Amino acid sequence: xxxxxxxxxCYAYEVxxxxxxxxxxxxxxVDYVKSIIKANVITDAASYNPAEAFTLIHExxxxxxxxxxxxxxxxxxxxxxKEHSRVAPGRNYELTDKFHSSxxxxxxxxxxxxxxxxxxxxxNMFAQQQTVELSPFLNDGSVACIFDLxxxxxxxxxxxxxxxxxxxxxxxxxxxxxxxxANAMGLVDGYETRSMPKxxxxxxxxxxxxxxYFERPAVAPLPPTPEGKNPANPIEPIRIWIDxxxxxxxxxxxxxxxxxxxxxxxxxGIHPREISNMLSPGLTLKEAMDVIQWLREREAIDINGNxxxxxxxxxxxxxxxxxxxxx
Length: 327
Hints:
- The chain is 37% helix and 11% strand.
- It has ten helices and nine strands.
- 28% of the residues are buried.
């Protein structure tokens, strides 16, 4: 039993071993063992205790250990490190590129940090001046912040319009144009896409705050990081942002929060279960629910009805990027 229980530190199984316990109970134990293996891999070397790790995995049913490691390998969640020397138990495996890529979203941690920084700087500038000229070299996060302000009508002067085909859209910013001649449809005379002189569409953009800008809702206090502890369930899976010592891995927590919030922002009305499916195998359903509930308490998102109800939908709220402040 001791050797079999520690096989996950030596090599990957090619076939699962037969079930020895009742299937439903085994599935719960397998999920718990999988969380142990991932926590074992992700724990920082400075605080890693191989003896405790082996003891924890040794306490689990042999069939569950076999099945858990088989599933993690077949789903390419963990992979063997290509090293010649054997390291401490459990440390010769690592999370795969498939695992990490599943948590990559169009809006990443860098973009949210840029939006948060621009929001703070803009607030300071509006406190000193009534109009702010935007740089043509704004980063993506700053543009996301501006779109959020425009969508919630926090900045405006006189409504201006821009044209896409036959449709005109109001934009609540002031545009100061120069060397720009357009027809009644908003198209530049002699428009030839790539060959058109760029200075014909060169204009300044100013942001002007409405009185409601300074009345934006404050960000809710930081809720405690969910740890997934359940005294009534000793085999509650360890969350991916919690290490073997039950400490929060701040970098991983920031990544999963960003990934979930990005999914909700990019797909308004998305069902919580769909978020879990799209971020799999990076996040399990329980982990996704924890993050969604945390974002709800942070007042970064809204959810109509019960979280896992059939018609449940998630929507980002104004200033959603400010939810990551302090993480």
